[in-house]
């Protein structure tokens, strides 16, 4: 988990929603973090690749390990959450669902603004993943930010941690400033 201090406004948590080592999701999350920071928004990155191994013990359903507390606290302390999710087999990663299941209910997403960025090797850019997450977080009573960004062909678009498509980068910048404003309005 990394934290970036900043200037004003809400605290946004950027969730890198896979535990795959060296993932494009993490590279994209780092780029999005930079966009928020450049916009003067306080943000932190929560990377599911950093989840403690003991969280995967079946006994964790009954009693969360102490090593999971910083992950839950990061979500609970955030004013808004940006979920950066890849598409795996027509859905989002199983580790993301497990992570959501391990978070305190209902406090983790109840009335919390949530925003989505989907990425995939295929042509739809994780559209299915994001739509499925919208159903889950809608059930959890999150405030869903409507301006989603989908990144198809991520292997061709993301090079050396940078987006090669100026229009796509502009959409990510617009989403970041729009979501920060959305969170600030709901916070007020």
From TrEMBL:
Pfam families registered for this protein in UniProt: FMN_red (PF03358)
Source organism: Prosthecobacter algae
Signal peptide residue numbers: none
Taxonomic lineage: Bacteria, Pseudomonadati, Verrucomicrobiota, Verrucomicrobiia, Verrucomicrobiales
Protein name: NAD(P)H-dependent oxidoreductase
Domain NADPH-dependent FMN reductase-like span(s) in chain numbering: 12-150
């Amino acid at each position: 988990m990394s934290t970036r201090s900043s200037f004003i406004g809400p605290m946004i948590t950027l969730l890198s929603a896979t535990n795959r080592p060296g993932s494009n999701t993490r590279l994209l999350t780092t780029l999005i973090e930079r966009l928020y920071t450049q916009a003067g928004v306080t943000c932190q990155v929560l990377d599911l690749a950093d989840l403690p191994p003991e969280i995967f013990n079946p006994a964790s359903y009954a009693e969360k390990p102490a090593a999971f507390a910083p992950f839950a606290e990061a979500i609970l302390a955030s004013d808004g959450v940006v979920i950066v999710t890849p598409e795996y087999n027509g859905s989002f990663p199983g580790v993301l669902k497990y992570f959501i299941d391990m978070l305190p209910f209902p406090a983790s997403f109840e009335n919390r603004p949530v925003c989505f960025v989907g990425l995939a090797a295929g042509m739809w850019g994780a559209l299915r993943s994001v739509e499925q997450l919208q159903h889950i977080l809608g059930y959890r009573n999150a405030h869903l930010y409507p301006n989603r960004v989908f990144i198809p062909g991520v292997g061709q678009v993301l090079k050396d941690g940078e987006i090669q498509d100026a229009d796509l980068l502009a959409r990510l910048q617009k989403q970041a400033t729009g979501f920060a404003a959305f969170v600030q309005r709901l916070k007020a």
